[in-house]
Description:
The protein is mostly helical. The termini are far apart. The protein has one domain (11-220). It has helices at residues 2-7, 10-28, 30-38, 42-45, 48-69, 82-93, 97-146, 151-209, 211-220. It has 9 helices and no strands. Mean pLDDT is 88; it is low at 214-221.
Amino acid sequence: MQILLNLFDPITLVLMIAGCVVLATAQNGFAALWGAFAAMPVLWRADPDRDMLLARATMTRVDHIANLRGLSCTDRVRAANPFLATAIRKLSDTESVDRFELWAEQTMADRRARHEKVHKFWLSIADSAPALGMAGTIVGLVGMFSAMNDPAKIGPAMALALLTTFYGLLIANLVAAPIAARLANLSERELFWQGELCDRMIRVARRETAPVRRASIREVA
């Protein structure tokens, strides 16, 4: 227990974390800083597999309504997922397939870029933490060698040298890198089902706006 207590230095730990955040912010910008910490609840709450199954079931209803009543009536289908609800509304309001396809491509590109910013921010922390730890080690060693004539000052300087390296490894390998990997995995799975959904909506829109389809509807009317 005493060894564990000796490993905990709140001031050094806070300075290490703050330094890593400052460096990552300098590399990626304040928007990435906000997005990185706003994404933290997603780590445990997000379930892309569940969202994909719900999206497929919802899209089946959208396809059915579009086939019976046309694209303008697809907004009758309700969706809890914000992306899915927006996509259905855009499909219902679209004036042409090309316009909806352009919206889908731009939206997917924006989401991918936003996810990459967050992922890079945490990777920046993982990269900078060991470097900051090494810098702290050098500072501690300089302090130790400059106080060789005072044994009372050697211990704290040596502790600083070792703790900064230890904290750098912990922040990089037990915090930042796992978070970056988890977010990258969630992003890949989320973008997969969203891209699949957009592709299916585009196919439905092309089918419903095809000249043969419109002619047959007029004949039935």
